[in-house]
Amino acid sequence: MNQKGGVGKTTTAVNLSTALAQKGKKVLLIDLDPQGNATTGVGLEKNSVSNSYDLFFEKVQESKTFVENLHCIPSSKDLAGIAIELASDPVKNYKLKQSINYPEYDYIIMDSPPTLGLISLNILNACNGIIIPMQCEFYSLEGIAQLMETISSVRENWNKDIKIDGILMTMFDRRNMLSKDVLNEVTMFFKDLVFETKIPRNVKLAEAPSFGKPGVIYSPLSPGAKAYDDLAEEFLSKEKLN
Amino acid sequence: MNQKGGVGKTTTAVNLSTALAQKGKKVLLIDLDPQGNATTGVGLEKNSVSNSYDLFFEKVQESKTFVENLHCIPSSKDLAGIAIELASDPVKNYKLKQSINYPEYDYIIMDSPPTLGLISLNILNACNGIIIPMQCEFYSLEGIAQLMETISSVRENWNKDIKIDGILMTMFDRRNMLSKDVLNEVTMFFKDLVFETKIPRNVKLAEAPSFGKPGVIYSPLSPGAKAYDDLAEEFLSKEKLN
Ligand SMILES: Nc1ncnc2c1ncn2[C@@H]1O[C@H](COP(=O)(O)OP(=O)(O)OP(=O)(O)O)[C@@H](O)[C@H]1O
Ligand SMILES: Nc1ncnc2c1ncn2[C@@H]1O[C@H](COP(=O)(O)OP(=O)(O)OP(=O)(O)O)[C@@H](O)[C@H]1O
Ligand SMILES: [Mg+2]
Ligand SMILES: [Mg+2]
Which of B119, B210, B213, B219 to mutate to test the interface with A (most CBs of A within 10 A)? Predict the structure, then answer.
């Protein structure tokens, strides 16, 4: 989650869930962004019969993807109007928590839109861990304080179990000073909250969605794919420790 | 405007308004994104006394920037809750149109958040032209159809004068095929709606905000700054034709 746009939320959701599935974990990817990029990223159609808009009202049937062990609840453009539709619903902040009940999966990964509105609030109430992708650029630094504030107020008022799994530095370009400066600043401030694994800027990750495939499948030997595979390893070993 | 995140909306708003101001036009930049990146991009403080949140309720005093001919109405984090606050206001979609009355400026440029919610709807009702920044990447293509639908429904129901000034291709990297493929696809589909000027990927544009300066001032001879200067020329000559 991160309300800053274009930081790699979808690319992370798609590639981490695929890498975990390739390691034998049963994973459910839920696309909660009305743009539906994660849905396309795993080769599915948007606005299909049972989708993440319906999930605000009832439990829905998941769709299989072409990746073994990876299922998905695709996006719908109806999500764009959900905040207005539920404006007077007394449990509007808990709708996802009520219907997300899929015990057969090892991990459920939700891709969020670039806002801190009703959809993101529902995600924060329904989940137990958050990964914060952060582009190694200056504007990305600006939103972090606000995001941290929102997460701690959710923890105090609604969901005491929520924890930050880590901050993931994305689109890291070792050739430019800006990337290094931002990385240093974030690591100094957030210390071990920052994942060891850094995702490099790698065009293969940006090309993969045009083929309807996750980067780790489209170009498994690329630096971007390898980094997401490392992330999955690090994520699993961090889980064991907790 | 573009609901896809990270496509260069803020970078375009900041650099185009500065380039127009440098050509002697009186420009007002209004930051309507709760993240407040455009406010930082021109060296101002967010959440200051008169800000864009207040603009939903009354006309507010503009702030001077260090750029001659460029004034700004800075952002406020209170914007994040405006959709819920105005949910039952019968004129919630026209609030900005009612208070934006600054005839002394040649151009008013509004930076929008990465969503098609109440703030963006207010912008669409208050303005007469839209620039659509589009990253030369696959996921950016996905959101365009939805954005075009929203704009035409605003034109039919609320604001018949709204027109698309143009689609601006951003972060164009001539070295990679993906950039060229996306550019070709957009140009084939949207023809002369696409600005001739393309903004190259240029790290100087990403570095500038950390110094609180627009790219065209921080590094005026860089490819990114020159491109925004060309855009200002093209924008002015297109205005003359209409
Ligand atoms: N490590 C990377 N290297 C190169 N390109 C990347 C990388 N990660 C993501 N991208 C590309 O950058 C763009 C933004 O990434 P992505 O769409 O995943 O971000 P997001 O945070 O989900 O955006 P939004 O805020 O719109 O939801 C996409 O075109 C994607 O393909
Ligand atoms: N042409 C460019 N070359 C290199 N970097 C760029 C360019 N344009 C923008 N950037 C950088 O890319 C990131 C995204 O750009 P920007 O923040 O302007 O997009 P945005 O559409 O306003 O994002 P949001 O959806 O969060 O509002 C920023 O860190 C910015 O500095
Ligand atoms: Mg996304
Ligand atoms: Mg922006």
Answer: B210
